[in-house]
Amino acid sequence: MAAPGQPSPQQMAAMQQQFAAEAAKRGMTPEQFAQKQREQLTADAAKLGLSPEEYVSQLRARAMQAHQQQMEAQQQGQTSAQSDDEQSQAPATQQQQQQQTHQVPVTPGSPPDPKALAVANFLRSQNLKPRTCIMDGQRKDMFKVKRAIRAIESPAYAKAAGKKNSLLPPVTDRASAENVFKLLPLSLLALRVTKVDPHEGHNHAKPKNRVKGLWTVKIEQHQDTEPMMHYVWLYEGPQWKQKAMAAAVVAGIFAVVLFPLWPMILRQGVWYLSVGMMGLLGLFFAMSIFRLILFCVTVFVVPPGLWLYPNLFEDVGFFDSFKPLWGWQETKKSKKSSKKSKVSESAPTTDAAPSATTTSAEPASTSSAAPVKRDLTARVEEVEE
């Protein structure tokens, strides 16, 4: 191994080959070329007033210094290149981190993916427990991500995806289920939203007629897939029902306009139908007036008053409006007693003493030995004299 600062054997061989090549260029042998260089060194050293050995050592020191400067320049170039590589790799690592946080880019203007439409139709048919929200002044259906993922991982989805010619992508694990859900924001069928206050920054007070639970939402830039995030439906589903209803309305308008051109049998049928409807309407008004008169009479005869069809004007179904046939007018006391009875029925039953019991007097020692639960209900006690 060569000593520090001394050339290695490979370097010595390379130097000897280069020395022989230089001598051959000048038409000399290596020994003649070496003798000429020694004479030149002796002449240069005499000009500087130095011995040949001192002049050679000085040349070696300059060569070593130049070599060190060259090595330092190379090291600086390598460090700058590494820093440039690290800076170029930084955006790539950031993109990988963003992909790990499940951020989905939105591409507006592109047609919906058929697979995304199939997923949207499946989720619209499932019970995602949607709630109504306000977005851009319009009412939309909003749902949570966790319920959509749960529906995608359900056996119903696997059964639908296993059908012939089904466009639903297969789902094997949680990651594949999230990838299937990401098809919705990619095709702008559903987007992530967050709650906002429409009156934020205003000086006026909050309106009193605000509907509790009705959120005002806005669309977020990053479409993440965290379980508790909310998405709003932009896809309304198949429009054939709306189109059929619109066609029926147009046909009805044309039919009414062209009524004079109808056959005589149809016009007579419409006339009888209208008379029957007017008769039913008149019967309803007559029944309403009769039940009001009956209530006014029974208030003074048999208070608190009797109602015929008490649920006639209540917010119930058509058949429930005529049930029961009659009922007494509810007073404040009856309402309170009904509420108490409902509370008592819903409360758990306890081992309480009956309202009326017959007991016999016992010595005080017995009563003091076993603690008795205090009961405030009415009781009848018999005392033996």
From TrEMBL:
BP GO terms, sorted: post-translational protein targeting to membrane, translocation
Swiss-Prot/TrEMBL keywords: Endoplasmic reticulum, Membrane, Protein transport, Translocation, Transmembrane, Transmembrane helix, Transport
Domain of life: Eukaryota
Compositional bias annotation for Basic and acidic residues: 372-385
Biased composition (Low complexity): 1-22, 59-107, 344-371
Pfam families named among the record's database cross-references: Sec62
Protein name per its UniProtKB record: Translocation protein SEC62
